[in-house]
Amino acid sequence: MTTVAFFNNRGRVGTTSLVYHLAWMLRELGRRVIAADLDPQANLTGMFLDETGLERLWRDGNRGTIDEGVAPLFEGAGDIVESPQVEEIGERIGLLMGDLALSRREDELSTQWPKCLDGDRRAFRVTTAFARLVARAGRRFDADLALLDVGPNLGAINRAALVASDCVVIPLAPDLFSLQGLRNVGPTLRDWRRAWKERAGRKPQGLDIELPTGDMKPLGYVIMRHSIRLSRPVQTYGRWIDRMPSEYAEAVTQDGLPSAPAEQDPNCLAHLKDYRSLMPMAQEANRPMFLLRPAHGAIGAHQQAVLECYTDFRNLAGELLGRLDSGRALPPGARPPSL
Ligand SMILES: Nc1ncnc2c1ncn2[C@@H]1O[C@H](COP(=O)(O)OP(=O)(O)O)[C@@H](O)[C@H]1O
Ligand SMILES: [Mg+2]
Questions:
Q1: How many A from CA of 224 to the centre of ligand 2?
Q2: Residue 113 forms beta bridges with which residues?
Q3: Which class is domain 2-276+313-324?
Q4: For residue 337, what are the contacts with CB-CB under 8 A and spacing of at least 6?
């Protein structure tokens, strides 16, 4: 299983929507996917669960969430649960449900991080709690991929989430703050990667846990055109988009400044547009935008928009898989749906 984190230091760029739609599209392409909601805001869980699912979560007092999975360890009564609950969202998508209570784990994760350098056993268990939970869930679900949705900050929860990831995708909105976020994310990823490798080398003898690689390899960025500042004139987007290739190269890959514009930049995985009313329609129907049907309100011009959305996400998923699988061909048969 390959684990991919979706991460930016800027909120509201569309990270959670991206993870949600990619999980569905990867499933369309025949892959088995675990979506892990590691943002204590739990928006991904809110997108995946229908009213019945949310009611059950409420009634059961958040039973089966990621926080419940790590609670025994954090509360000093053993380790993470043996068999984390994977909520089946239709065929081939499993959700590790988020939880607002996750935010309480920030302090303990901060405290234990430096102690890994002393070879402290508990420090290793706590720091790798999310990584091990996702790996266990992935094995249980027989997943090909795990997609991690993380919140927009550089705190200890996110560090532990990134330690769990093999690769990272950075969603970017075409605005100043999103680009500034890159200047934090790039150096932070390098720092976390280096610091984790150093710690991993100090794992105490006899500690019987599997350590994640914590490679955090940057796979590229996705331009989220919808943006938070929709009221701005269209040309102002262009200005920020033009700066993305060089800002990304400078802050994240550090492999020289590409001269290509964003459309030809090898680091640009996709350019997603503002799907406008498809998004609220999808939320209402509790399914991805590209699987909306007339029965969900996708009629008239919306039908064409649904097909375009399918193509956009299929191309993005294909690009992602191509990079992950080093060019392994996509399975045949994944065609835009006929409405
Ligand atoms: N491509 C898109 N087209 C239209 N609306 C979008 C798109 N992507 C995200 N949104 C909307 O933007 C808001 C923020 O998206 P969200 O995925 O929650 O961002 P983040 O996880 O970065 O905070 C949500 O209301 C979502 O419905
Ligand atoms: Mg989010």
A1: 13
A2: none
A3: alpha beta
A4: 290, 291, 306, 307, 310
